[in-house]
Amino acid sequence: MRFTPKGYGGHRRNPDEVKRDGWKEQGLLAVAVDDDRLTWPERELVRQLGERLYGKRERDARHG
User: Fold this and answer.
1) Are 57 and 50 spatial neighbours (Cβ–Cβ below 8 Å)?
2) Where are the stretches annotated Disordered (predicted)?
């Protein structure tokens, strides 16, 4: 007998699993601009893409 509604409880995926599945299943990419796994040119590309698509971040807009 089930005591919780379907979709509640059970295994909770970590954020990297969600990001990986989003990329593989839907072609969506979620990348933090300060991800240590990226080189400086890769982080700069991510920052530039983010600014082009969504504008400057609030933190960056105040300082420059």
Assistant:
1) yes
2) 1-21
Query: Considering its fold, how many domains does the chain have in total?
Result: 1
Question: Residue 53's domain spans which residues?
Answer: 33-63
Q: Is residue 40 one of the residues assigned to a domain?
A: yes
Residue 55, both tokens = 């504008």
How far is it, in rounded angstroms, from Cα 52 to Cα 24? 24
As a whole number, mean pLDDT of residues 15-25 equals 96
Q: Which residue has the higher pLDDT, 34 or 62?
A: 34
Is residue 46 within 8 A of residue 38, CB to CB? The reply is yes
CB 56 within 8 A of CB 63: no
pLDDT tier, 28 (very low <50, low <70, confident <90, very high otherwise): very high
